[in-house]
Amino acid sequence: MTRLIVAAGGGGDAVAAAMLHAALYGDEDQAVILTYAWDRLLIDPLPGPRGADSFTGLESVTRSVWSVPADARPIPPAGSTLPRLAAELPHTLALLDPHHGAEGITRQLEELVSHLAPTSIDLLDVGGDILAQGDEPTLKSPLADALTLAACCQVNAPIRLLVAGPGLDGEISPEDLRPQLGSLVHTFTAEDTETIGSILEWHPSEATAMLAATARGARGVCEVRDAGLPVPLTDEGPTVHEVDLDDALSRNSLARAIMTTAALDEAEAHSREICGFSEIDYERNKAAWLKDQPPVTLNPEDVLSQLDRFQADARTRGITHTTFRHITEALNLNGSQRDELRRLLINSRPGQYDAPLWNIDA
Questions:
Q1: What 3-state class would DSSP assign to 144?
Q2: Long-range contacts of 304-308 (CB under 8 A, 24+ apart)
Q3: Helix or strand or coil: residue 325?
Q4: Cα gap 141→132, rounded to integer Å
Q5: Distance (Å, rounded) from C-alpha 67 to C-alpha 49?
Q6: pTM of the model
Q7: Cα separations in angstroms, 282 against 32, 48, 272
């Protein structure tokens, strides 16, 4: 018995897919999780997603699909969390490659469905930006989700769209999402998070970190990303809802526009036209800026003093929690220093570690 789970936006969606599999399907055979190699710049300094030619050690699954085993390696300077995820998860991670547009992803899905004959296919998005219309002012990263949605709607197989943690990506509010959500499929519990608990100690995903935190009972407002978006942590946080796939497509203008694209550049052009931007352009600009920044030494005394000022300001904004990624950027540290910063804070102030988040109010 094989389950296929498509991680709509890559990154943390792949981690959430493992938690979903454990919660819904228990100890059944391993799943195949189809996911992008598209990491934050603190992991991968190159903008945009990686393709199969950015790795060594991949294993062929079908003509167009490669799996990422634990001993695979990104070719420098590229970086990727996928090999480490493969080492820590019991599932097969298959590489979703958008460089041939929605047509290429559709081809990958069709080959996998034919090869695996999966018992079920779930398309999982954490946060719900896969339901974006394209004109939302808070929308930051519509392209990856739109590509997977466009492809899944063209595959001749039953695919269930699941949205976990409505609003947790900070891109569409829970209020705007609520009318679009269908039946409740599951509410994650603290026990469900055990399957990915050790991964969240190092993985940079903020949305999946908040998904796990709300499942463990965290409530309040979490500040995330470099822009400092406030995300409510509520009882809706750990829920998983089914959404009609065709309804999602009819709502998502970008997904409809890119259905016949055969290159990532084409899809990007549509994103600029419909949404007013391309998230890869944002990554390109930020990568160029980061390249020119001088190295910063992490001085514990200075860092804790800066942290106190940051926390005092955050409390005035009603913030109760934040992520280590956001603290790293708020203190003007390099992304490569995130793990060192995390260890310093947890060792210095263990009472504020509300795994996997940082509790400003503790």
A1: helix
A2: 304/344, 304/348, 306/331, 307/331, 307/345
A3: helix
A4: 10
A5: 16
A6: 0.97
A7: 31, 10, 11
Give the model's pLDDT for residue 30.
Answer: 81
Q: Distance between CA 244 and CA 230 in Å, rounded?
A: 28
Residue 121: its H or E element: strand 120-126
104 by Cβ neighbours in 10 Å (0-12 / 13-18 / 19+) ranks as buried
On whether the CB atoms of residues 341 and 330 are closer than 8 A, the answer is no
Kindly report, residue by residue over 86-134, the tens digit of the pLDDT. 999 999 999 999 999 999 999 999 999 999 999 999 999 999 999 999 9
Residue 343: burial class (beta carbons within 10 Å; 0-12, 13-18, 19+): exposed
How far apart (Å, rounded) are the C-alpha atoms in residues 18 and 154? 25
Q: Which of 201, 192, 222 is nearest to 18 (CA)?
A: 192
- On the question of a cis peptide bond just before residue 238, with omega within 30 degrees of 0, the verdict is no
Q: Which amino acid is at 351?
A: G
Are 287 and 41 spatial neighbours (Cβ–Cβ below 8 Å)?
Answer: yes
Contact 118, 3 (CB under 8 A): yes
- Condensed to tens digits (0 to 9), the pLDDT of residues 225-243 reads 888 899 999 999 999 999 9
Local structure of 252: helix, strand or coil: coil
Distances (CA, A) of 312 to 65, 305, 307, 308, 360: 49, 11, 8, 6, 9
Strands 31-36 and 3-7: parallel
Mean pLDDT in residue range 61-77: 98
The residues with which 93 forms a beta bridge, in sequence order, are: 33
Residue 56 burial (10 A CB sphere; 0-12, 13-18, 19+): exposed
Residue with tokens 């993985």, as numbered in its chain: 203
Structural tokens at position 1: 């018995």
With beta carbons less than 8 A apart as the criterion, state whether 89 and 198 touch.
Answer: no
* Residue 72 token pair: 């695979």
How far, in Å, CA of 28 to CA of 90, rounded?
Answer: 11
Mean pLDDT of the 143-156 span: 98
Q: Please state the separation of Cα 270 from the chain's center in Å.
A: 22
Q: In this model, does residue 284 exceed pLDDT 80?
A: yes
